[in-house]
């Protein structure tokens, strides 16, 4: 494994830096960057116009869907270029992408398992944020034990008729499409009776009810499916063959270097906050325990980065991300929580001060970040489940009897 970037890679980095300088500037606010993208595109007014315009602009410049085949709107670029792209975008703090679920989960899944027709129909629209996607896996009685899902699809001449409920569906209220798991053979062993479908959210019978999270925000939702018709051509892979495809979607969800980059960004903010806060006559940053904690976080982020490079080198060798992606997911979500705890320790009694108070530190960011970090060790599979996957699939330990 060679961890150095080639001359061509570094040239690519320089070209990208120039483009980002012209289009993002010196770290303007996310809203300003999206507004400018919207103005540049002259797009018709829709409530998400700014949020869609930014990924479109990136796509026009060739900076999304890098490893996807050119014939479906991708760049046929190397994974290394993808990493450089992610690193550089994090460095200048580009706005978040509204089509992340499409880009990072269903897009790669369709590249791997979709029919030719599905790739042509869906991939270009994912890249340009024409379609926003949500993930309909979890159900009220099927989260960690996903294979127990009960959402049922009957099969007739035209396709599937779906009845059931999904829950914790991130961004369902904004989404145009959902990829979902349904039970198509209730008599088969539970992993062998599941199919993987693509659902147009405007289909009659789909209702979305938003749920408020612990921090008061609207992010995930309940989705009810009552006699929802899905055409046959929206089946991904074989009938009753959805489980291995779902596993590959989860591996895509848990892999990638974007987590590392986000953590690096968080550490930078933490460092700046500690540099501005006074502890008596001194800066908080001069406190040895603060310095030790920040250094420890830096070391762990570097460890995580190299783990990401290892996955990357596997991908370059043609291997899809496997169960090893669970190691990075577990480590990143636990580290994120530890970093927010460090922030609140540094802030001390000022940590919980409300956003509008004159005494608030760093606009109350760390209090909110602490709650947000808790969700990271649940969404995409809990930390306990990651440990189970690592034990079984990475370390080869035996499964428990009742699993
Ligand atoms: C922010 C966020 C966004 C999400 N977005 C989506 C989404 O877009 N689409 C979607 O489908 N889902 C989504 N989810 C749901 C998420 O995948 C589930 O919450 C997660 O898989 C856990 O399932 P559960 O909530 O049913 O908890 P449960 O499975 O009931 O688990 C409860 C507790 O028991 C532990 N536990 C369960 N089984 C075991 C075991 N075998 N060994 C050890 N411990 C165990 C768990 O670790 C957990 O601590 C999201 C969740 C969050 C927090």
Helix content: 40-55%
- CATH fold call of the largest domain: Butyryl-CoA Dehydrogenase, subunit A, domain 3
The helix-and-strand class reads alpha+beta
- Beta-strand percent range: 5-15%
Gap from first CA to last CA? 36 Å
Report the CATH architecture of the largest domain: Up-down Bundle
CATH superfamily of the largest domain: Butyryl-CoA Dehydrogenase, subunit A, domain 3
Tell me the total number of β-strands. 10
Adjacency order of strands in the biggest sheet: 1-4-5-8
Give the SSE string: HHHHHHEEEEEEEEHHEEHHHH
The set of bound ligands, ions and cofactors reads: flavin-adenine dinucleotide
Overall geometric form: globular
Radius of gyration: 22 Å
Largest sheet, strands/sense/barrel: 4 strands, mixed
Number of domains: 3
- Averaged pLDDT: 89
Provide a count of the helices: 12
**Low-confidence parts:** none
Output the CATH class name of the largest domain: Mainly Alpha
